[in-house]
Each structure stands twice: as structure tokens, then as C-alpha cells.
Design brief:
Layout: H1 14-19, H2 28-38, E1 44-45, E2 56-58, E3 63-68, H3 88-111, E4 115-120, H4 129-141
Parallel strand pairs: 3-4
Antiparallel strand pairs: 1-2, 2-3
This protein binds zinc ion (ZN).
């Protein structure tokens, strides 16, 4: 545990933003929204007009973002997703249904012209969230900014957005 952080970052910088979205009781959805908002993006939340009620809808970028819990959405190969030991049939049926619904809804959104981005709970752990959120931002705003999808340059900024 780092001690209580003293306000030492310049407002608007990456460090400032990250220091303000680390509340212990912050849900993963709120974490993602706070970050995007601090980066200057404006969006709608849980818009009921779209399949799956995406957590973040960014009309300007034709992009929707789902922030998914690894258990409920059956994140494949993820250590946070493991089937409960009791009521296995109940749980596997339920979770498989969730996943199938996700797949269907994402396909519907894509057919409507939306780019669909999923951010997983495990990608928002303390040690990895900053990198993931910066990458999410670039995925949203920078179609041409980062053609090499795998390479992450965390220092890159987008001053003209
Ligand atoms: Zn996961």
C-alpha cells in the first residue's frame, strides 16, 4: 500500500487523472468513465436504445464500450473466471447464456455500424489499468494513430483531440 498521496500532479496530466480515479469503492464502470471523461471525451451511459445497454456510448466516434466482469461474462482463459464448485449445471448454463447474449449483442451493434470495445475487469487491476485505459483512449479516438495494435507506447499523447 502506498501512503496517502499528496496532490502533486499538474491538473490534466496523465498522473493527475490516474491519481483521481483510484477510489477504493469505485466500480470498474466508473473507473473507465472517469478516465474517459478526464481525457475530455463525452459520452452517454447505459444507453437503453442499444443492444446490451453499453456502459459507454460515444456517438462522435461510433464506438461503444462494455466494461465486463470476468466472472459474469465468462472471460475465457482468465484466472478471475472460474466456475463455482456447487450448482455447476445452473451456473454453467447461466454464464454460457450470458456469453452467448454478449456475442449476439456485439454482432448487432457492429451491424449497426458501431465499433465495440470490451474492457475486462482483470485489465483494470491496479498494476495494469493505466496502460489499459490509455490504450482504450487510443482505440476510441485514434483509428489512424496506432496502426501497430500490439505495441503500446504509454507516453504518447493526443494533444489535438
Ligand atoms: Zn478477465
Amino acid at each position: 500500500m502506498a501512503g496517502k498521496r499528496v496532490e502533486k500532479y499538474e491538473r490534466g496530466t496523465r498522473s493527475y487523472i490516474m491519481s483521481h480515479i483510484r477510489g477504493e469503492n469505485t466500480s470498474i464502470e466508473t473507473l473507465v468513465r472517469s478516465f474517459l471523461f478526464a481525457k475530455g471525451l463525452r459520452f452517454r451511459k447505459n444507453d437503453k436504445r442499444y443492444p446490451g445497454h453499453p456502459d459507454v456510448v460515444l456517438p462522435k466516434y461510433h464506438t461503444v464500450v462494455f466494461v465486463n466482469g470476468c466472472f459474469w461474462h465468462m472471460h475465457e482463459g482468465c484466472t478471475k473466471h472460474s466456475m463455482p464448485k456447487s450448482n455447476v449445471e445452473f451456473w454453467s448454463a447461466k454464464l454460457v447464456r450470458n456469453r452467448e447474449r454478449d456475442i449476439k449483442q456485439h454482432a448487432e451493434l457492429e451491424a449497426m455500424g458501431w465499433k465495440v470495445i470490451v474492457v475486462w475487469e482483470c485489465e483494470l487491476g491496479k498494476k495494469v489499468r493505466e496502460e489499459r485505459l490509455e490504450r482504450l483512449y487510443r482505440e476510441i479516438v485514434g483509428n489512424a494513430v496506432d496502426p501497430d495494435d500490439g505495441a503500446v507506447d504509454t507516453e504518447r499523447e493526443n494533444p489535438d483531440v
